Amino acid sequence: MNRGMRAHVRAVLVTVVVAASAATGIAQGTDPAYGTWKLNLSKSKFSPGPAPKELTLTVEAAGPGRKVAVSGVAGDGTPLSWGYSGNLDGKDVRLTGSHPDADVVMLKRIAPNATRSTFKLSGKRTLVSGISVSADGKTLTVATSGVNSKGVSVKNTQVFDKQ
């Protein structure tokens, strides 16, 4: 996988973590982010590219927080699989699996259906994502910007459809 592809895959992974955190703080069972979401490639934009071939996000209740699982296939065909379990309490949450742009994420609610996630690698901020769930609960949008671990600027908009 070349440097540009790696940078893009990293940005996608960070974005998905943020997306999974879209609505923490809403009572369990009513959180609009709960469920399975599929990336809609035709509605999404990636800079830098390439886009992943496919991406699925699963968000479940886990005590006072949530459990997030991400799986898919990167643009170069390599498998993607990682996740986390934590709360939106403004504290760093350790990521599991292999994520080249972040080892922790800090999650914060900014509106009933929107959150902001700040990703860090070795204590240094890499990417920030704003996530929102549509009023009808069928679409989750993630806008991510920043600089990945390779020093490449990232500006992605990912659109996920609820399954």
Q: What is the element layout, followed by pairings?
A:
Layout: H1 3-20, E1 35-39, E2 54-62, E3 65-73, E4 79-86, E5 92-94, E6 96-97, E7 104-111, E8 114-121, E9 124-133, E10 139-147, E11 153-162
Antiparallel strand pairs: 1-2, 1-11, 2-3, 3-4, 4-6, 5-7, 7-8, 8-9, 9-10, 10-11
The largest sheet is: 11 strands, antiparallel
Number of DSSP E strands: 11
CATH architecture: Beta Barrel
Shape from CA axes?
Answer: globular
Features:
mainly beta, Lipocalin, 11-stranded antiparallel beta sheet, 11% helix, globular, 163 residues
Would you kindly provide a written description of the structure presented here, covering whatever features stand out?
This protein is mainly beta. The chain has a single domain, classed as Calycin beta-barrel core domain (Lipocalin, Beta Barrel), CATH 2.40.128.20. It has one helix at 3-20, and strands at 35-39, 54-62, 65-73, 79-86, 92-94, 96-97, 104-111, 114-121, 124-133, 139-147, 153-162. The longest helix has 18 residues, at 3-20.
Provide a short characterization of the protein structure.
11% of the residues lie in helices and 50% in strands. With 163 residues, the protein is mainly beta.
